[in-house]
Amino acid sequence: MEARAAEASQALVKGHIAWRTKLSSPGASIQAKEIARAESLVKYNLYVSGLPTDQLYTLMTWPVGQSKPSPMMQGVSIGKNGIVMCAGRTPEQCDDSSQKDDPADLVFGPAKGEPYRLALVSGENRAAIVIVPDPITGKDKGCTLNVQRLLPRFELAYVTGSGFPANSDASFDGESYGEKHPVRTKVDSEGNLQFALMPFVSGKQKGTTTVQGVGMRCSPSIKFDWGQ
Question: 71, 116, 150, 219: which has the fewest C-beta neighbours closer than 10 Å?
Answer without folding.
Answer: 71
